[in-house]
Amino acid sequence: MYQIAKKETLAPNLIFMSFRAPGIAAAAKPGQFVIIRVDELGERVPMGLAGWDEADGTVDIVFYVLGTSTMKLASLKEGDSILNLAGPLGRPTELERNGSVIVACGCFGIGPSMPLIRELKAIGNRVIVVVEARGSGFIFWEDRLRELSDELHIVLGDGSCGVKAWADDLVADLLKAGRKVDRVYVHGCPFMMKEVSEATRPFGVKTIVSLTPIMVDGTGMCGACRVEVAGKTKFACVDGPDFDGHEVNWEVLTLRMRQLMAEEDRSHALWERENWHKLIASPEELARMMGEGGGLPEHRGGACWT
User: Fold this and answer.
1) Which residues pair with 63 in a beta bridge?
2) Residues paired with residue 105 on neighbouring β-strands, in sequence order
3) Domain range list for the chain
4) Fewest CB atoms less than 10 Å from the CB: which of 81, 97, 238, 239?
5) CATH architecture of 2-90+261-280
6) Inter-residue contact 124 to 61 (CB < 8 Å)
7) pTM score of the predicted model
8) CATH class of 100-210
9) Would you tell me how many other CB atoms lie within 10 Å of the CB of residue 41?
Protein backbone atom coordinates (compact mmCIF):
# COMPACT_ATOMS: atom_id res chain seq x y z
CA MET A 1 0.00 0.00 0.00
CA TYR A 2 1.17 3.52 -0.81
CA GLN A 3 0.01 6.36 1.40
CA ILE A 4 -1.07 9.76 0.10
CA ALA A 5 1.22 12.27 1.80
CA LYS A 6 -0.37 15.35 0.24
CA LYS A 7 -3.36 16.19 -1.93
CA GLU A 8 -4.21 19.55 -3.48
CA THR A 9 -6.79 20.75 -6.01
CA LEU A 10 -4.83 22.92 -8.45
CA ALA A 11 -7.65 23.90 -10.82
CA PRO A 12 -11.07 22.50 -11.75
CA ASN A 13 -10.66 18.71 -12.07
CA LEU A 14 -6.86 18.97 -11.81
CA ILE A 15 -5.41 17.26 -8.74
CA PHE A 16 -1.90 17.11 -7.28
CA MET A 17 -0.98 14.08 -5.17
CA SER A 18 2.22 13.08 -3.42
CA PHE A 19 2.74 9.45 -2.38
CA ARG A 20 5.15 7.82 0.04
CA ALA A 21 7.28 5.64 -2.23
CA PRO A 22 10.96 5.88 -1.24
CA GLY A 23 12.15 3.23 -3.67
CA ILE A 24 10.70 5.10 -6.65
CA ALA A 25 11.87 8.49 -5.36
CA ALA A 26 15.45 7.21 -5.16
CA ALA A 27 15.53 6.12 -8.79
CA ALA A 28 13.24 8.55 -10.67
CA LYS A 29 14.43 10.69 -13.59
CA PRO A 30 12.74 13.34 -15.78
CA GLY A 31 10.42 11.84 -18.39
CA GLN A 32 9.62 8.65 -16.49
CA PHE A 33 6.19 7.61 -15.26
CA VAL A 34 4.43 5.41 -12.72
CA ILE A 35 1.45 3.08 -13.07
CA ILE A 36 -1.20 3.47 -10.41
CA ARG A 37 -3.95 1.08 -9.32
CA VAL A 38 -6.29 2.44 -6.67
CA ASP A 39 -7.81 -0.88 -5.55
CA GLU A 40 -8.24 -4.51 -6.57
CA LEU A 41 -11.02 -3.60 -9.03
CA GLY A 42 -9.16 -0.66 -10.51
CA GLU A 43 -7.41 -0.41 -13.86
CA ARG A 44 -3.71 0.32 -14.17
CA VAL A 45 -3.23 3.96 -15.18
CA PRO A 46 0.10 5.46 -16.34
CA MET A 47 0.91 8.95 -15.01
CA GLY A 48 3.98 11.07 -15.62
CA LEU A 49 6.10 11.96 -12.61
CA ALA A 50 5.66 15.60 -11.63
CA GLY A 51 8.46 15.49 -9.08
CA TRP A 52 10.05 13.49 -6.30
CA ASP A 53 11.90 14.03 -3.04
CA GLU A 54 14.47 11.38 -2.25
CA ALA A 55 14.99 12.68 1.30
CA ASP A 56 11.28 12.52 2.13
CA GLY A 57 10.72 9.40 0.06
CA THR A 58 7.81 10.87 -1.90
CA VAL A 59 6.80 11.03 -5.57
CA ASP A 60 4.33 13.47 -7.14
CA ILE A 61 1.73 13.33 -9.90
CA VAL A 62 -0.78 15.73 -11.44
CA PHE A 63 -3.88 14.23 -13.01
CA TYR A 64 -7.12 15.27 -14.68
CA VAL A 65 -10.32 13.78 -13.24
CA LEU A 66 -12.07 12.24 -16.23
CA GLY A 67 -12.91 8.52 -15.93
CA THR A 68 -13.66 5.97 -13.24
CA SER A 69 -10.07 5.41 -12.11
CA THR A 70 -9.21 9.09 -11.78
CA MET A 71 -12.53 9.72 -9.98
CA LYS A 72 -11.65 6.95 -7.54
CA LEU A 73 -8.23 8.46 -7.02
CA ALA A 74 -9.64 11.97 -6.58
CA SER A 75 -12.06 10.73 -3.92
CA LEU A 76 -9.20 9.71 -1.61
CA LYS A 77 -7.87 11.99 1.12
CA GLU A 78 -4.48 12.65 2.64
CA GLY A 79 -3.55 9.65 4.77
CA ASP A 80 -5.48 7.20 2.56
CA SER A 81 -3.56 4.60 0.56
CA ILE A 82 -3.69 3.09 -2.90
CA LEU A 83 -3.01 -0.56 -3.68
CA ASN A 84 -0.24 -0.34 -6.29
CA LEU A 85 2.30 2.21 -7.43
CA ALA A 86 4.82 0.76 -9.91
CA GLY A 87 7.81 2.65 -11.18
CA PRO A 88 9.80 4.45 -12.22
CA LEU A 89 8.94 3.14 -15.69
CA GLY A 90 9.95 4.10 -19.20
CA ARG A 91 13.14 5.58 -20.58
CA PRO A 92 14.22 8.89 -19.04
CA THR A 93 14.19 11.88 -21.37
CA GLU A 94 17.47 12.18 -23.27
CA LEU A 95 18.77 15.51 -22.03
CA GLU A 96 21.42 17.50 -23.87
CA ARG A 97 22.76 21.00 -23.87
CA ASN A 98 21.02 22.00 -27.10
CA GLY A 99 21.07 25.78 -26.61
CA SER A 100 17.58 27.24 -26.73
CA VAL A 101 14.64 24.90 -26.10
CA ILE A 102 10.87 25.23 -25.80
CA VAL A 103 8.87 23.24 -23.27
CA ALA A 104 5.19 23.39 -24.24
CA CYS A 105 2.67 22.07 -21.76
CA GLY A 106 -0.92 22.27 -20.63
CA CYS A 107 -3.43 20.72 -18.25
CA PHE A 108 -1.92 17.70 -16.43
CA GLY A 109 1.15 18.02 -18.68
CA ILE A 110 2.38 20.91 -16.56
CA GLY A 111 3.21 18.34 -13.88
CA PRO A 112 5.80 16.19 -15.71
CA SER A 113 7.16 19.32 -17.40
CA MET A 114 8.46 20.64 -14.07
CA PRO A 115 11.37 18.20 -13.50
CA LEU A 116 12.17 18.39 -17.22
CA ILE A 117 12.41 22.21 -17.16
CA ARG A 118 14.54 22.11 -14.03
CA GLU A 119 17.02 19.63 -15.51
CA LEU A 120 17.20 21.31 -18.92
CA LYS A 121 18.05 24.56 -17.18
CA ALA A 122 20.59 22.89 -14.90
CA ILE A 123 22.65 21.57 -17.83
CA GLY A 124 22.87 24.99 -19.45
CA ASN A 125 19.91 25.36 -21.82
CA ARG A 126 17.90 28.53 -22.29
CA VAL A 127 14.38 27.34 -21.52
CA ILE A 128 11.29 28.97 -23.03
CA VAL A 129 8.09 27.66 -21.43
CA VAL A 130 4.74 27.87 -23.21
CA VAL A 131 1.66 27.00 -21.14
CA GLU A 132 -1.81 26.67 -22.60
CA ALA A 133 -5.18 26.51 -20.85
CA ARG A 134 -8.85 27.01 -21.62
CA GLY A 135 -8.98 30.01 -19.31
CA SER A 136 -7.15 31.70 -16.45
CA GLY A 137 -8.79 29.45 -13.84
CA PHE A 138 -6.92 26.47 -15.28
CA ILE A 139 -3.44 27.95 -14.84
CA PHE A 140 -1.44 26.75 -11.84
CA TRP A 141 2.16 26.85 -10.61
CA GLU A 142 2.81 30.05 -12.56
CA ASP A 143 5.28 31.35 -10.00
CA ARG A 144 7.25 28.09 -10.08
CA LEU A 145 7.30 28.06 -13.88
CA ARG A 146 8.44 31.68 -13.99
CA GLU A 147 11.24 30.98 -11.52
CA LEU A 148 12.50 27.89 -13.37
CA SER A 149 12.33 29.22 -16.93
CA ASP A 150 14.16 31.97 -18.80
CA GLU A 151 10.98 33.03 -20.55
CA LEU A 152 7.35 32.19 -19.78
CA HIS A 153 4.37 32.56 -22.12
CA ILE A 154 0.78 31.78 -21.20
CA VAL A 155 -1.88 31.41 -23.88
CA LEU A 156 -5.58 31.00 -23.18
CA GLY A 157 -8.15 29.43 -25.43
CA ASP A 158 -10.93 31.72 -24.26
CA GLY A 159 -9.07 34.84 -25.37
CA SER A 160 -8.89 36.40 -21.91
CA CYS A 161 -5.18 37.12 -22.48
CA GLY A 162 -6.20 39.42 -25.30
CA VAL A 163 -5.55 36.81 -28.01
CA LYS A 164 -7.48 33.57 -28.41
CA ALA A 165 -4.69 31.04 -28.93
CA TRP A 166 -3.19 27.71 -27.96
CA ALA A 167 0.37 26.49 -27.47
CA ASP A 168 0.83 25.51 -31.11
CA ASP A 169 -0.10 29.04 -32.21
CA LEU A 170 2.55 30.63 -30.03
CA VAL A 171 5.23 28.06 -30.88
CA ALA A 172 4.59 28.64 -34.58
CA ASP A 173 4.68 32.40 -34.08
CA LEU A 174 8.05 32.24 -32.31
CA LEU A 175 9.52 30.14 -35.09
CA LYS A 176 8.07 32.37 -37.83
CA ALA A 177 9.67 35.35 -36.11
CA GLY A 178 13.06 33.70 -36.54
CA ARG A 179 13.65 32.79 -32.90
CA LYS A 180 16.46 30.28 -32.55
CA VAL A 181 14.98 27.09 -31.14
CA ASP A 182 17.03 23.89 -31.12
CA ARG A 183 14.54 21.47 -29.57
CA VAL A 184 10.89 21.39 -28.50
CA TYR A 185 9.48 19.18 -25.72
CA VAL A 186 5.72 18.72 -25.30
CA HIS A 187 3.65 17.37 -22.41
CA GLY A 188 -0.14 17.34 -22.46
CA CYS A 189 -3.13 15.63 -24.04
CA PRO A 190 -2.54 13.80 -27.36
CA PHE A 191 -4.34 16.44 -29.42
CA MET A 192 -2.23 19.24 -27.98
CA MET A 193 0.99 17.29 -28.60
CA LYS A 194 -0.09 16.53 -32.18
CA GLU A 195 -0.88 20.19 -32.88
CA VAL A 196 2.46 21.41 -31.53
CA SER A 197 4.27 18.74 -33.55
CA GLU A 198 2.50 19.90 -36.71
CA ALA A 199 3.37 23.52 -35.89
CA THR A 200 7.10 22.74 -35.72
CA ARG A 201 7.23 20.36 -38.69
CA PRO A 202 7.67 23.05 -41.40
CA PHE A 203 10.65 24.46 -39.50
CA GLY A 204 12.42 21.13 -39.02
CA VAL A 205 12.79 21.58 -35.26
CA LYS A 206 12.94 18.20 -33.55
CA THR A 207 9.91 17.86 -31.28
CA ILE A 208 9.78 15.32 -28.46
CA VAL A 209 6.36 14.21 -27.18
CA SER A 210 5.54 12.05 -24.17
CA LEU A 211 3.04 9.25 -24.87
CA THR A 212 1.26 7.39 -22.07
CA PRO A 213 -1.57 5.52 -23.86
CA ILE A 214 -3.56 2.61 -22.46
CA MET A 215 -1.18 0.32 -20.54
CA VAL A 216 -1.52 -2.89 -18.56
CA ASP A 217 1.78 -4.28 -17.26
CA GLY A 218 4.08 -1.39 -18.24
CA THR A 219 7.03 -3.67 -18.97
CA GLY A 220 6.51 -4.46 -22.67
CA MET A 221 4.84 -7.88 -22.29
CA CYS A 222 1.18 -7.12 -23.08
CA GLY A 223 1.44 -4.85 -26.12
CA ALA A 224 -1.51 -2.72 -25.06
CA CYS A 225 0.51 0.49 -25.36
CA ARG A 226 1.81 -0.09 -28.88
CA VAL A 227 2.16 2.97 -31.05
CA GLU A 228 3.31 3.48 -34.63
CA VAL A 229 6.44 5.60 -34.93
CA ALA A 230 8.20 6.11 -38.26
CA GLY A 231 6.14 3.24 -39.68
CA LYS A 232 7.29 0.79 -37.01
CA THR A 233 5.49 -0.58 -33.96
CA LYS A 234 6.87 0.64 -30.65
CA PHE A 235 5.81 0.01 -27.06
CA ALA A 236 5.34 3.30 -25.21
CA CYS A 237 6.14 1.71 -21.85
CA VAL A 238 9.65 0.45 -22.72
CA ASP A 239 10.60 2.23 -25.97
CA GLY A 240 9.16 5.53 -24.70
CA PRO A 241 7.35 7.38 -23.42
CA ASP A 242 9.35 9.96 -25.43
CA PHE A 243 9.12 9.86 -29.21
CA ASP A 244 9.71 12.22 -32.12
CA GLY A 245 6.35 13.92 -32.61
CA HIS A 246 6.94 14.21 -36.36
CA GLU A 247 7.16 10.41 -36.64
CA VAL A 248 4.12 9.43 -34.52
CA ASN A 249 1.04 8.14 -36.34
CA TRP A 250 -1.42 10.31 -34.43
CA GLU A 251 -4.50 8.88 -36.15
CA VAL A 252 -3.71 5.33 -35.05
CA LEU A 253 -2.88 6.51 -31.52
CA THR A 254 -6.19 8.37 -31.24
CA LEU A 255 -8.20 5.38 -32.46
CA ARG A 256 -6.49 3.06 -29.98
CA MET A 257 -7.12 5.43 -27.08
CA ARG A 258 -10.82 5.66 -27.99
CA GLN A 259 -11.41 1.93 -28.37
CA LEU A 260 -12.84 1.39 -24.86
CA MET A 261 -14.87 4.60 -24.56
CA ALA A 262 -18.25 2.83 -24.41
CA GLU A 263 -17.08 0.57 -21.59
CA GLU A 264 -15.51 3.55 -19.81
CA ASP A 265 -18.78 5.49 -20.02
CA ARG A 266 -20.72 2.62 -18.45
CA SER A 267 -18.12 2.15 -15.72
CA HIS A 268 -18.11 5.90 -14.99
CA ALA A 269 -21.91 6.05 -14.68
CA LEU A 270 -22.09 3.03 -12.37
CA TRP A 271 -19.33 4.23 -10.04
CA GLU A 272 -20.56 7.82 -9.88
CA ARG A 273 -24.12 6.74 -9.05
CA GLU A 274 -22.93 5.02 -5.87
CA ASN A 275 -19.98 7.23 -4.92
CA TRP A 276 -20.70 10.81 -6.01
CA HIS A 277 -20.63 12.01 -2.39
CA LYS A 278 -16.95 11.03 -2.08
CA LEU A 279 -16.00 13.70 -4.60
CA ILE A 280 -17.43 16.57 -2.57
CA ALA A 281 -14.63 18.66 -1.09
CA SER A 282 -14.46 19.05 2.69
CA PRO A 283 -14.63 22.55 4.23
CA GLU A 284 -10.88 22.38 4.83
CA GLU A 285 -10.18 21.49 1.20
CA LEU A 286 -12.49 24.26 -0.03
CA ALA A 287 -10.72 26.81 2.15
CA ARG A 288 -7.35 25.71 0.82
CA MET A 289 -8.62 25.90 -2.76
CA MET A 290 -10.12 29.36 -2.36
CA GLY A 291 -7.13 30.86 -0.58
CA GLU A 292 -7.00 34.06 1.42
CA GLY A 293 -8.68 36.12 -1.29
CA GLY A 294 -11.82 34.01 -1.24
CA GLY A 295 -11.60 32.90 -4.87
CA LEU A 296 -9.76 30.54 -7.16
CA PRO A 297 -6.24 31.79 -7.90
CA GLU A 298 -5.80 33.58 -11.22
CA HIS A 299 -2.57 34.26 -13.05
CA ARG A 300 -1.27 37.80 -13.09
CA GLY A 301 -1.59 38.18 -16.84
CA GLY A 302 1.87 39.60 -17.32
CA ALA A 303 3.04 36.54 -19.21
CA CYS A 304 0.21 36.55 -21.74
CA TRP A 305 1.12 36.36 -25.39
CA THR A 306 0.26 39.62 -27.08
Assistant:
1) 15
2) 131, 187
3) 2-90+261-280, 100-210
4) 97
5) Beta Barrel (2.40)
6) no
7) 0.89
8) alpha beta
9) 12
